[in-house]
Amino acid sequence: MPDLTPHETEVRVYYEDTDSGGIVYYANYLKFAERGRTEYLRAIGHDHRTVAKEHGVGFVVRRCEVDYIKPAMLDDLLTVETTVTNVSGARFSMSQRVLKNAMILCEVSVNLGCVDGAGRPSRLPSDLRLKMAELTDGYS
Fold first, then answer.
1. Domains and CATH numbers, the chain
2. 115 contact partners, CB below 8 Å, separation of at least 6
């Protein structure tokens, strides 16, 4: 049985993340989600720099859907939960939630692709694909 426990990354809301009213600007939730994805990859041993150096590939966002539920405010400590939901040869999908305490503020669904140095589609490195599949219900 795979471990479907989300990876958690803490993010503090800084002044630069907010509008003049101290509310997080909507586009900054995408930055928080990116940090969560980056830390997820690091936690499973496949940080961006190593993947690029050892395999010559990187990741691009193909599609992103965001539901904004409640606002985050200046100085809030947020938790970004990240879970891989689907893995295939050159693509993977993730589900993310941004929470304050146990309250969901934002939900993000993102589809990513693997590309080579020229930006062409490339298969995910097999060790990364297998590790992600272990943490989901398998391949699509």
1. 7-134 (3.10.129.10)
2. 57, 58, 59, 60, 121, 122
